[in-house]
């Protein structure tokens, strides 16, 4: 429940600070919607909101929806004990097994990428060798590439 005393600090704040507090209370979606409306209404306003969101750290503050923040929350939950030692041992073993499977899968993906890169490089080298061989055979038969460009009886350049 809001009281008159809760409203007093907001009245002392300027309108930009009140607008920021209002937007913060509604989350990142409100900031993004305001930015889109700003771009539609007057593009410098949208650009200013975008800059404020990045440099004011609005996009990175709060619940931290980034990948690293999720991982940190997850590891915090993993390390907490449930109080049941049998379950904790099972959970630790399962998580260790899943981490091993993830490492093995990431290693597989690395090998797959390396094999793809190698096959593409080998194909490039084969194409280059064929082109070089074809160019070399043209020069070995005694013909000159510019021979067709010269007229009969003219001196070579």
From TrEMBL:
<feature type="compositionally biased region" description="Basic and acidic residues">
    <location>
        <begin position="123"/>
        <end position="140"/>
    </location>
</feature>
<keyword id="KW-0812">Transmembrane</keyword>
<protein>
    <submittedName>
        <fullName>DUF2852 domain-containing protein</fullName>
    </submittedName>
</protein>
<dbReference type="Pfam" id="PF11014">
    <property type="entry name" value="DUF2852"/>
</dbReference>
<feature type="region of interest" description="Disordered">
    <location>
        <begin position="123"/>
        <end position="157"/>
    </location>
</feature>
<keyword id="KW-1133">Transmembrane helix</keyword>
<keyword id="KW-0472">Membrane</keyword>
<dbReference type="InterPro" id="IPR021273">
    <property type="entry name" value="DUF2852"/>
</dbReference>
<feature type="transmembrane region" description="Helical">
    <location>
        <begin position="30"/>
        <end position="55"/>
    </location>
</feature>
């Amino acid at each position: 429940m809001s009281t008159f005393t809760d409203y007093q600090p907001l009245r002392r704040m300027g309108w930009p600070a009140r607008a920021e507090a209002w937007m913060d209370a509604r989350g990142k979606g409100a900031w993004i919607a305001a930015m889109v409306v700003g771009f539609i209404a007057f593009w410098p306003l949208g650009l200013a909101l975008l800059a404020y969101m990045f440099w004011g750290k609005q996009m990175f503050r709060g619940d931290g929806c980034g990948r690293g923040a999720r991982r940190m929350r997850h590891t915090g939950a993993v390390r907490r004990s449930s109080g049941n030692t049998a379950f904790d041992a099972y959970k630790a073993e399962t998580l260790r097994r899943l981490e091993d499977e993830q490492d093995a899968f990431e290693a597989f993906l690395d090998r797959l990428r390396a094999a793809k890169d190698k096959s593409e490089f080998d194909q490039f080298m084969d194409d280059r060798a064929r082109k070089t061989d074809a160019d070399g055979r043209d020069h070995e038969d005694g013909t000159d590439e510019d021979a067709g460009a010269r007229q009969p009886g003219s001196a070579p350049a």
